Amino acid sequence: IAGGHGGCNAVVATASMDGTCKVWALKNGHNLRTLSLPCIAFSLTLDRPAARLFAGGSDGSVHVAPLGSAANTTTATTRSWHASGSTNAAIVGIGMANGCKNLVTCTEDGNASIWDLASGSLAASFRIGGGAVTDATVLKKSAAAVSRARNDGTGFTVRDGEDWRRAGEVARMEQTLRESEVDKARSVELVEMAVGGYKRCLRLMLREVTTARRPNDGKDDHTSAND
Predict the structure, then answer these.
(1) Membrane-spanning regions, if any (predicted)?
(2) Domain residue spans of the chain
(3) Strand 41-46 and strand 52-57: pairing?
(4) What is the pTM of this model?
(5) What's the confidence (pLDDT) of residue 149?
(6) pLDDT at site 34
C-alpha cells in the first residue's frame, strides 16, 4: 500500500497477488483505476503529484504506470527496468527521495540502489548485510543534513549501518532529554500549585482565628467594665 500527498484528497494505491494495483480516492473510497502488472508487486510508491505509480515487482524490476488516464479504466505499465543487479531477486522496498528526483529500491537479497528518475540511470548502490531483507523505508532528513551538489542541486549521503545506529542512539537520547525537561517542568508546576494551596489554607485558618477572637475580646472588655 502507498499513499500520496494531499491530505483527505490524496489517493491510495494497493497491490494484490493477482498482479494488479488499484488506486483509490481516500475521501470516499472510490476505485479510480486498476493497473495491470506483469508480476506481483511487493512494494509501491507514488511521486509527489501522484501522477505515476512505481511498483517493485517479484521479477526484480521496477514497473511504472501513469495515473493520468480516465477513471475506472485498466492501464498497463509504460516503463520498466531491471533493478536487482545480476540476480532476479524481488524488489521488497521502494521509495522516493530528494523531492521525487531519485527512486530508492531494495531487493530481498540486500541490494539497495538509488536511481535518477530524469535520466533513468543508476546513481548509487550498496549492499545490506545480515540476511534477507523484507522491507525498506526512505527516511527524510532535515535540511541541515542534506549535502549540496556542485550545480547547486540537492545531493544525498549514503550511511552505513554503524552510522545509522549511532544516529539513532543520539536521537533517542535527545528525545529522553526532552521528555525529562517536560517532566521537570510539570513537577515544578505541581510544587507551585501545592505551595499556593498551602498559602490559601493558612490564610483561611488565620481568618477563622481572627474572626473567632473578636467577639471574645469584646465580651471580656464588657465584663471588666461591670466589675
Answers:
(1) none
(2) 2-158, 160-227
(3) antiparallel
(4) 0.56
(5) 44
(6) 86
